[in-house]
Specification:
Elements lengths: L1 H22 L6 H9 L11 H7 L2 H9 L17 E5 L5 E4 L3 E2 L7 E2 L8 E3 L9 E5 L5 E6 L9 E4 L4 E5 L18
Antiparallel strand pairs: 1-2, 1-9, 3-4, 4-8, 5-6, 6-7, 7-8
C-alpha cells in the first residue's frame, strides 16, 4: 500500500510539473513571441531574452544579431536598389535606413551613408581601426554592423551592415526625398 501511495504521489508531481512547464514563458513558440513583438509600439524598447529571439530568428540572424557575428560578404550586398523604401531591423522592425542612402561600397555588405534618424541606431563608444564602431539597433539592441569614416559625401560615413540584419520594406508610391544631414549633425 505504501508503494502504491508513493507511485500516485510521483505521478501527481509529474502532472503538476508538466502543467507548470507548459505555462512557463520559456516554452513559448515563435508565433507567440511575434505576436508579443507586434504589440510593442515602434517608439518603445524591445527587451526579449536570447531564447525568445532564437525562436523568431534564423540561426544566421541569431548568430549575427544576438552574438555580434558577421556574415560572409556577397554580391547582393553591393546591389544598388534605389527604390522608395526603407530598410528595417530584421529582429524588431525598427526603421533604420532609407533605400536612397544605400551605395556600392565594394565590400560585399550593404552600405549606407546615414541612418534614417540618428536615434534609430546606437553607436558604441569604442573604435577599432579594423572593425570601426559597432552599430546596433536602438530599439532591440541587435548587432547590425559597423560604421567607418570612409564613406561618400555628404556625410563621409559608411554604415556597413550585415544583410541578414536588414529587411527591405517598399514605401507607398510617392516622391523620393533625400535626407541630407544638417551641419550641426556631425559625428563627435
Amino acid at each position: 500500500m505504501k508503494g502504491m501511495a508513493q507511485v500516485l504521489l510521483d505521478v501527481s508531481i509529474c502532472v503538476a510539473l508538466s502543467a507548470c512547464s507548459r505555462a512557463h514563458p520559456s516554452n513559448l513558440d515563435g508565433a507567440q513571441i511575434r505576436a508579443k513583438l507586434n504589440t510593442i509600439p515602434l517608439d518603445q524598447q524591445v527587451d526579449f531574452t536570447n531564447r525568445e529571439w532564437q525562436l523568431i530568428m534564423s540561426p544566421q540572424q541569431f548568430y549575427v544579431m544576438r552574438r555580434a557575428g558577421t556574415e560572409r560578404p556577397s554580391l547582393s550586398g553591393n546591389a544598388l536598389d534605389h527604390r522608395n523604401g526603407t530598410y528595417v531591423c530584421s529582429a524588431c522592425g525598427n526603421p533604420l535606413y532609407r533605400a536612397e542612402t544605400k551605395f556600392n561600397s565594394g565590400t560585399g555588405w550593404p552600405s549606407f551613408w546615414q541612418p534614417i534618424r540618428k536615434e534609430a541606431v546606437h553607436e558604441s563608444s569604442t573604435f577599432s581601426a579594423i572593425f570601426g564602431v559597432e552599430v546596433s539597433c536602438a530599439r532591440c539592441s541587435s548587432h547590425l554592423g559597423h560604421v567607418f569614416n570612409d564613406g561618400p559625401p555628404p556625410t563621409g560615413l559608411r554604415y556597413c551592415m550585415n544583410a541578414v540584419a536588414l529587411t527591405y520594406r517598399e514605401a507607398s508610391p510617392g516622391p523620393v526625398t533625400l535626407a541630407f544631414p544638417r551641419a550641426d549633425q556631425g559625428r563627435p
